[in-house]
Amino acid sequence: MISRNRIDTIKSLGSVIALMLLVTILSIAQAQFRTTSNILVVLRQASINGLVAFGMTGVILTGGIDLSVGSVLGLTAMLAAGMMAAGVTELVAIPLALLLGAVFGLMNGLLVTKLRLQPFIATLITMSIFRGFILIYSEGRPISGLAGYPLLSMIGRGDFLGIPVPVWLLAVTFCIFLFILNKTTLGRRIYAVGSNPIAAELTGVSIHKTKIFVYAASGLMASLAGLILLSRLGSAQPTLGTGYELDAIAAVALGGTSMSGGRGRIYGTIVGVLIIAILSNGLNIMGVPAFYQEAIKGFVILLAVLSDPGR
Description:
By secondary structure, the chain is mainly α. The chain has one domain: ABC transporter involved in vitamin B12 uptake, BtuC. It is about 75% helix and about 0% strand. Strands 1-2 form a two-stranded antiparallel ribbon. The mean pLDDT is about 90.
């Protein structure tokens, strides 16, 4: 019988090979793709989806799903923009937005554990509620006038040692998730809950606490991604975050994480994130319309799920 680690390794290698082929094809087809400036653009774009996908990885490893991440991203960014536009210092607004993201994720975790809702249903409900709150709070209008906030500007548009700050945030967050999932008791519990929740509970693992943690972490990551996007755009749009759950799920699935939970690695997710970012960038360079890109991403998810031996 093939071990879980062997399956994860095989699937991760498949993702790496797909990434290498994609990079090779686009480098040959488009000279603009292989420029240093474009590579930095790809990495900056990948950082937003990467942060959301890291949180999504933890949720999916427990056998769940979080459809609300796009709405959490948009709502926390909108609230942060509203606070700063009202005169609240960014040193308060930014941490508070991150805290709210974790609280919104915590709400998802409570719906799944305490109220025993299916993760798909629970996060579908909160996705709609949070999106409605965005429209209510903003009255359907964007919030702008965010110039003059150096910390916010640095989060999304700054550079350090020639590398965009969002990329540094992605790298640091990746290391944190890598450590938690591979080197801590909490990480082992996350895998155990997704692999066999009954056995995990019999061994003393608190399934509820583990699930609540991963949903809270997912909300936190979505809010951090929202702040980066807010910084890049310079305003909070009512549609901010729409569709980001699709990209995050695609990245996790492409990275080899089983959609049924219990199997997968965070380094596979970063490969999936890069595939999505490079694919989007390449399609943009080639002038492919945005609505065709959404269809292509949908087929990518389908292929990834069909290739999952644990489905």
